[in-house]
Amino acid sequence: MSFPPLLQPERLAEVGVFGGSGFYSLLEGETRQVSVQTPYGAPSDAFTVGGIGGVRVAFLPRHGTHHRIPPHAINYRANLWAMASLGVTRVIAPSAAGSLQSDVRPGDFVICDQLVDRTYCREQTFYDGPRVTHISFADPYCPDLRQHAVGAARGQGVTVHDRGTVVVVQGPRFSTRAESRWYSNQGWQVINMTQYPEAALARELELCYVNISLITDYDAGLEGVADIEPVTVDEVVRVMRRNNDRVRQVIHNLVPLIATRERTCPCASALQYAVVS
């Protein structure tokens, strides 16, 4: 397949949201289920299309219903291609994440501006040849969406870090202490399992993409801090449930801010100088 064979977008939605089991009540009013077939296989699940503040939004549970797909097995290409085929041009991608620094605490939000890829064996491009494409990825997240996401979080009184580097690990296991210490010593703030290749694929489709990291834990613990132990699933779920309402409200505030604005960011023309001719 030489390039993403995008269908004529159906214009069913303007904004896309990835999320998990805590976000099924995200949309307002009447909703509809939409199944999308893609050249890359099936997305994680059917989309729920509804409204937020008068804006049409397509919601997809990244891990499928009941969290049945582990991070390394998500069909990221199908998920992003399906979003674009529905007419989405802006993607909001909340995710649970661990902290690598003591000043980034559980319950905080981080609007990441950089990422480091430590994954492997994931389908990470739509361009496998013969059309060769090299997108610019120096700044992986949309600067405009990031600015508005920070404002929406602060408007809710959330403790939000307006930038941060996320290291994306393969999963599904958590880090060893040595790995976590290495990431922390690099000065990186956040650790997650799903931000890559999701962000890169969005850029290849010229979609604006922003991550909202909800910090749930301190990864492999903090050395020298006796009462902070390595992360467990129970702890992640507990913090997520306690903060899901805040994440939903930030998204509700963010969607109307971004949907009607003209796209002047680099994301909208990412392919202009990326194709080798």
Task: Describe what is shown at a glance.
With 277 residues, the protein is α/β, with parallel strands linked by helices.
Could you please describe the fold and organization of this structure?
The protein is α/β, with parallel strands linked by helices and 277 residues long. It is built from 5 helices and 13 strands. It has one domain: Nucleoside phosphorylase domain (Rossmann fold). 25% of the residues lie in helices and 24% in strands. Helix 1 packs parallel to helix 4.
* Structural class determined from secondary elements: alpha/beta
Query: Helix share of residues?
Result: 10-25%
Here the CATH topology equals: Rossmann fold
Give the total of beta strands. Answer: 13
CATH architecture type: 3-Layer(aba) Sandwich
Strand content: 15-25%
What shape does the CA trace take? globular
The CATH homologous superfamily is termed Nucleoside phosphorylase domain
**H/E topology pattern:** EEEEHEEEEHEEHEHEHE
**What is the CATH top level name?**
Alpha Beta
Sketch the major β-sheet. Answer: 11 strands, mixed
As residue ranges, the low-confidence spans are: none
Secondary structure tally, helices:
5
- Alpha-carbon Rg, integer: 18 Å
Distance between the termini: 17 Å
